[in-house]
Amino acid sequence: MDFSHIFSNMMSASFLFALLNIIFINIILSGDNAVVIAMAVRSLPDKQRQQGIIWGTAGAVILRIGLTFVAAKLLEVPFVKLLGGVLILWIAFKLLLGDSDEGKEKQINGLMQAIGTILMADLVMSLDNVLGVAGASNGNMLLLLIGLATSIPIVVFASKLITRLMDRFPIIVVLGAAILGRVAGEMIATDPWMARTLHNPGHLVAYSIQAALAVGVVVAAKLWVRHHAPQPAMVPAGEIAGNPFSVEGWDIL
Description:
Mean pLDDT: 75
Number of helices: 12
Distance between the termini: 58 Å
Helix content: over 70%
Shape: globular
Strand content: under 5%
Largest sheet: none
Low-confidence stretches: 99-108, 240-250
Order of helices and strands: HHHHHHHHHHHH
Radius of gyration: 20 Å
């Protein structure tokens, strides 16, 4: 293998410019993935939280490499993005419920469940991301692999930051679920079958679907908790006043 030729290609202006494009794309497109990871690991102990972020992100990047070869074709298949959007809605709903159900079981299998959730969500959400990175690489496999590898530290850093913010400001969990609802709406609205059914909807319809699902997933989780959670014990008014995000029936607000 001619390493000098590979190195000279890596130092070329076009290669470096394409790499910067891929890094920028990763920064822009990895935000949703970082939200999923942060929400999936937020209830874990600090040590397992770190492991969940690292293993979940590494597994997600491996999935992206595999998806690179099939992403373009998959996105053209009717119902793929529609079903993917429904799956993202379900994941957002479950993550928003957090620790409200099956607490002991989650403590036992928490790390594996978090990693599984991360991989499942990233598998669905990464199709568009992969296309963006693949397009910027212009068919250069080395550039593509380097670009995908750079997404690891970006997502890890963003996930850690969002997780810490969620610990400090629980309302961010709700915002994260709303973001996932918007992502699901975007996937559903751009599915080929939906586009034909709605006769190629314009931006207003697409944004309306995104907004409706962003709000809808939060409202659905709120109603679920209200109707299925045990009646909360009476709490002194002074303790409620101490938490500016306290809302009856939902402990994360």
